[in-house]
Hints:
heterodimer; A: 7-stranded mixed β-sheet; 31 strands; globular; B: about 725 residues; alpha+beta; about 30% helix
Amino acid sequence: MPSYKIHPGVGIARLGNSENDFYLAPETPAGRPQECDSLGNPVYGADGVTPRYVAHYKDAEGRVKRQAARFQIYVYDEQSPQGRPLKLGDRIEGGGNTGTLVDIRWRVWLANKKACWFRFNATEGEHGYPPDAPRRNAKIEGDARTQLIIDPGPRIVNATDKRRARFDRSGEGAYATTFPPQNLQPFSIDTLGEMMTDNSGRLIVLGGHGRSGSDTRNPAGPQIADYANNDGWFDDTADGPVTARLVMFSEEVQKLRYVDVEYPAWVVAGYPRFVPEILDMVTADDVMHDLALRQFAADTELYGALGTFDDPQCIDAHNAGQLAHWKASRLTWNKAYRPWFFRDIWPILYRPDEFRWLTDALGQSNFPHDQQNRGTFDPYKLCVAPQYFASQEERDAARPQMLLRANANQGEAAFETARRSDGPDAQGRWIRDDYRAMRTFLFDLLRLPGEENEFKVVDRISSRVHNLPLMPLLCGDNPLTNSAPSKFLRLTDYQLFILKQWADGRFIDDKAMGWLPPGYSPFLPYATIPPPRSGRELDRDVLSNVLGGAFCPGGEIGWLLRNPSIYWEPYRVKADRTLSDFFQTAAQANQVSTGNDIADFTYSMDNPLSQNNDFDTGLQPGDLTKSMALPWQADFNECSTQNIDITYADWNNLYPESVGDTRLAASRKVWETLWWPAHRPLQVWENIGGGNLSQLDWSRGVPQTNAGDLKMVSEWSKLPFVVPNPALTPEQRRQASSDLASPKFVAAERN
Amino acid sequence: MAATTASPKSKAAATRYAQVKGILAAAAAGAQADYGNGQVAFWDLPYADLLTFKLFGVRLIADVAPPSCCASEAKPWCRSDASGLIRGLRAEAPFDGTRFPRLPWNGKPVAQEDIQFIAAWIDDGCPEDDRINTVELAPDGDPAIIQHVFAREIAEFEAISGVGRRKGYRQGELRQRPNLDCMSDTEVDQYRSAFRAIYALDKFPEDRRSYNNQALIHQNHCQHGWERFLPWHRAYLYEFEQNLQDFFPDLALPYWDWTMSQYWHNGTPQDGCVIPASFKAYLTLPAAEKLIDQLGLGKQSKQGKAFLDLAKEHKRFTSQHDFFCYVINTIGFTDVTPAPADRNRRCMIDALVDSNALWYPLRYPAEYQNSAGQSGTINQVIHYHYPSPNDMAQITGLNNFRDFGGGNAYNAAFGFLDQNPHNTMHIWTGGMNPDQGKSAYACGMSALTATAAAGDAGELGERRNAMVRASGRAFHTREDMYLQPAFGDMFSNLTASYDPVFWPIHVNVDRLWWEWQKRNPNNEPADLDSVLSPWSYTIRDTLNAERFGYEYVRSSFFIPVGMETPVGRFISKPITVNAGVKAFTKAELRLHWVPQLARSCFIRVFLNQPGADASTPIHDNPHYAGYLAVFGHGACYGGPGHCDLPPSRARDFDVRPRNHNTPRNHRIDVSACARELLKKSDSLQITLLVIGVDYREETDLLRMEGVSLNFLD
Lengths: 751, 713
């Protein structure tokens, strides 16, 4: 029996101040967005197959184009247990009917609840808010707070006669919308975006225009006083549920019949991604994948109860009792699991070196993640798996003449290798594992769970990692307050597990195995396979372009992303279905067939969108993004670097003056730490005329002050996008990033 | 046996082991692959090594012993399925590209037929040299399994004859609502008697127990098209069932599973059984004798004999149109017209109503005509289609109550269960009267001839309530039974419950909800506090069907034992299990009213192995169905009477907790064993062994009121 699901489970639209121009969200990791026409139909090259990727991120007037989130329906049946895209004209069945798919109705409800939500204060609220937690706009009380929610109501489009709808003040005559006053400064908000269908019936959702404004009647004009909470302000980011109803013509009864998809999807309209082709150190997909494994028993052969890996348990994540029982068992990672180096390990190790194109900090440290010159991250050495021999003679015969010590590229690693004792292992096997020390060196520098507030490795005097900073050396969820501090970012448990397996030699060199796709280069490591892909691959790849940490509050979505309570299943947000679903059931539509049931009826709603969360019921429109900074430009501007106080692990703020502690004041230590350069660049290579490139400040002219935050409200659209250097040949792009004279990424389209 | 079927002739000379190696080598030809530490071709390993070879921790040939638990009921454990080699060749996890690529690595995919050949070799125990066997086994030779059964002389217990179901339920025991088509004739007759009992009350208009007053509740209060549909009807069925139990305390309302093959009929339901046989028109002998008298036909006349033969053969008719056409065309009795006043027609309607209390004249199942009077199917005329088993799977697969059972907004939130199968079954059984307004029976062609009818009947299904008039009717009077309305009473909510077929349809709807609730335990209607008039139940009150005292059991066989003496070994007579029952999802053996046992024991269940004893193996024995462990009560430490059996019902005002010595009921799931055995057999014979803690049989321990074998949907 087939089921129909919307993919991606979470789709990402992005703001842009261009009136009409937009492109399609990337559907591969670090993929370039795809060009489309004004209806969202993808544009192809001359051969009609090769997608044409976006050439300009700004329109002819220099305004930032919007990014459309695209949703499509996959069918899951015996023929395609992993799902395949459903097309108009396909046979479908459901609700006791069979027919030909003639139309798809999409229903989306966007809202922005930021102005009514709690003031964002680092980690406060991640596990519930205390009774006295302050709200934004606390002076507005009672029913008037409803006006703080930007709620255009639901909209419906189909693939035939109603292909476009706008999330504007009109409510399309079917809803009582709530919008902020029309005189916001500097920009008022009249829409949260629009939706349409392309010629294949896929849904295209566009977000707002990046308009943020304040209604404070302050004679000094609009002011910004905080990175995340500014009373009186609104912005036009949004999120909400997406559902679909399949319309079939039943030949059997010669009538239209309707069936809904299995569960709604979700759309998030976040701010622009100025570096679309470089991934964050931890992506939203990394977070979700880890959550799926450890909270939803998604792969019990990889993470499950001790002693069950040979015969993995089948846990139904929808069965709360079964899942709770599983979680109460002795859960652990399967030590026999072997990650693949180039598929699983290398994409993690590859990421930090790319930040050299987004900040000058790495160059000032002589490129610690370098793959070739310094060689600490040389994939061709890190990929080599241990080999086992029955005797020392066999092992030595296989060993190349070249002594490791002689290879300068390996620096300290070679020294460590040479020092290792050279005898058979417990099973009497002679091991040849030339690069083990290089692997363990990298692993030993990783920040492990519980070390979020540790700055560097201590107490390993005899080790070469002693006193080195732990990695990643990026800001954590709370480097700001003394309440549940979390100064530095760490990788997910899953990432750390597979890296540990790799460091220990339990991995597969997929290159040597011949399992890599043809034409693979480790310096273009992400999947570029064009559609069709499985629904889950689409879910994952779309989220891989979204920030997965640190969350303070973060980029598109905050720490809410990590909360298992908000999911119906992995990659699918639990929706309040009284709001997400079509008001009229599909069965009712079958029953009445009045023809004009595309209009949505909301008259029966007897409560406005909630000011609170109810995870038991599910999320409402606006709930996924409401804790993010208001306006988004304030936090965006300030999330360049952070001076993190590392004097004491458990404290972010010290007050030595209050106790007259001059010793403490004199011994304070701070580390200026990057936030997430792939979401908010700092220095970029830019053409300074005559084809000469220089590394310049990306947001020059916008200071890191409150006044700068206010300037960013109108300045963001002038900033350049960071794109692959068009001067490089395809062959140069396939090489390691070592030549600063020809950077791989450069800034383009600065206004 | 799979052993020989997959062997291609050209390979017959080689052992299958050699052929397996050949298949793998051919697929891997020219490919570079490293199967761990330089192993290039694992199939070339020495035989013994191959059987235990692990490819990065994955056993390529699974061990013989199945895993101790977790063997799925739907798919029994199978060695080849568990073998990494077969999974790898099929590109199944972990060889689906997540952990490893398809086997052989970097080689060509192996053909399905060859994979099947290798799988069969593994399932046959990976024989190293099996050429002799290959020759000697006949192509489909399944060597007979010789059982050496030495049954002791132990009395066999027999299922209750006639009514297979439990009688005299104990306090608190749930009534079993049965599948109508799995009921015995005796059970169906009791069901008919119950209807007759409350029809008889119709002449007392003020008696709330009468059929008409029960039906009137639906006309006045019924809830459809939103979330109250299921809760309201659950309460309605309960009230009606209680009303019947006032007359027949053991009766539980049967359900009509309309997707059974005799109805669905492979997609042509109009050619199938159409409605349950027990609801069809037929003549009993006394009714036929009275009828031929009234028609002035002699018992010896040709036509009189033909009417009597009808009764003797129990020939059944789906609708009155069918019956009258048979009378005219086959019996040759032509003095009858469709006019409501026609005397002979009235006599025949009387005879049919007297014969079967479940038949109802104002019912025209599967009969439809378009506005031009042409016959058509429900699809053509009504634009509805009969619910298929797949339709029901789709609907019961929905994951929220609003879609399944309806939402809380009236007139916008039909649930699929309500809309599709429920409405369709009303229209299916109600039908359109082919004789309405006709001066003569048109029997030249069947009402269901496949004349393609133009679909111009508008939204008949959608406007079904506008069609039937309830005013001016005197329901269940004979005058009413003679009417020739355009639509059957089931067509409309206003009249539907006057037709007794209303009940098994709605009981089945309730059963579908009951089963769906088990799979979706926290999925509830929105307005739980809403009252369901005309009663005082709220929606919340209806969520737990157990409080209404029933469960659904497709079929049940109760075998009385009696508590007077202990049972050493219990052996039932073979219980015949018909094809309809065989499609069960769960088979459950229940031990009823078992007093506390003095000593602890196991009770082992064997099916179709009457000679089983304490030494009969329980591993690798397809007849072993399961066991139950009973904790012994131990010696009584109280005075005289302390551990006597309590009275079967508590005294008035005795509201203390249950007596510690109240007999227990036990259940054992025997689904897997029963399902396998019923593939080859049409009967099941139950053997229960009481095994003491010393693993020997206990013959004077177990006492019980009876044993039942229950088949659940």
